[in-house]
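Quarterly update from the structural biology core.
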Amino acid sequence: MSSTVNPSTSSGQAATPFGREARVFEGKCVINYSKDGHVVIVEMDDPPANTYTHEMMRQVDEAILDARFDSGVEVIVLIGKGEKFFSAGANIAMLNNVTPEFKYNFCLHANETLSRLEQTPKLVIAALNGHCVGGGLEIAMACDIRLARQDAGKIGLPEVALGVLPGTGGTQRLARLVGKSRAIELMAIGRTFSFEQALDWGIVNDVYEGDAASFRDQVLTYAKQFTSPNKAPMAVGHIKRSVQTGIELPLQDALALERELQSLLFKSEDAKEGLASYNEKRTARFKNK
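Predicted structure, tokenized:
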């Protein structure tokens, strides 16, 4: 069953189901937050291109926190509203009308939000339902897995055409995905390319055929394989943390982190269930405990 969680009250305040202080939105609600079982869908909704402003990033940040604190959420799916755009990145009209100081703080907060997404110990899947360019790709690269809809749009970091660089993690995350030389070339040219090409380069994990509705269904089916009782969500989350944090550490420090995370899992009920089910030759039923 799918349930919609209204992100604002009638007074325009953010819902705070986990005890965080409410605040008044500085404009319209541009994030839709809904649940389907143990999967939460965070949908960017600012037509026509789902470009993001500081307000959208604040709402994305709050959605990440809500999902992080909700023990019933085991996987996060990030998607764009509509069929044409995942996100076209930062709102250029907004950036053209603010001070350099605002631009700096805007980029700083966006970086902090994407780092929070990257470090949240729950699997995060970007569902690229349409064009994914500029800051849209930077958001997607902060997710753990990227799934794209075939022939739904282009992907790339064309910021050089505006006289700037991809400043919300793009230069660093793209280089880590495709290597330094290719990343520099793609960003210096400002090239956009197909999802199929992105698949070949390892930027996306898979490309699905079908219309927008079918794509959404396929993504949810994919996401649910990582939720209880099918998988042990704590193990999935610890795998993510070990990779995301450990890859930035010297090897011996990363191995120590891996051991510590494993020791925590050995104490979990799900580890006991997994080992018991293996010995008893039955399918494990995990409880995220």
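The mean pLDDT is 91.
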